[in-house]
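Troubleshooting: if your tokenizer reports a length mismatch, compare your output against this known-good record of 141 residues.
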Amino acid sequence: MGDGTTLTGLVVAHCYTARRAYTVRLDVVDDKTGEVRQAEKVIPVDFTKETVLNFTASLDTVRAGQPVTFNAADSQLPMCENMVVLWDFRDGAIGNGQRIQHSFRRPGQYAVRMALRANGPGSCPDSHCVSRVITVLPAKQ
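Known-good structure output:
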């Protein structure tokens, strides 16, 4: 699979642990003769060129006033330049940066939105966004 993993069968599935370029090599065994045809097909797989839009939150449920760390370090727009990460916490506050901390002041459910914006040559998309819900409980009395 290009990462030291060998799989057998007509249909296989594999999860890679790192986002990088791999070369998958298909060796074919002839059932009748037992002959192994090495590198019958070579398939390049390059995860460094894929758009990835994702972020994590240190907590999905918090108390009002408790800080939450948001991290978009896994996100990428590889065909773009000057990428920025913008945050809308849906409580009136906004921010920017790959990693940011925010405290919600009031209880409720907030669909925190992270957007990637960039510019660049050719097919660079100008914006992508994703959201996740953070539940904020009343502060402890």
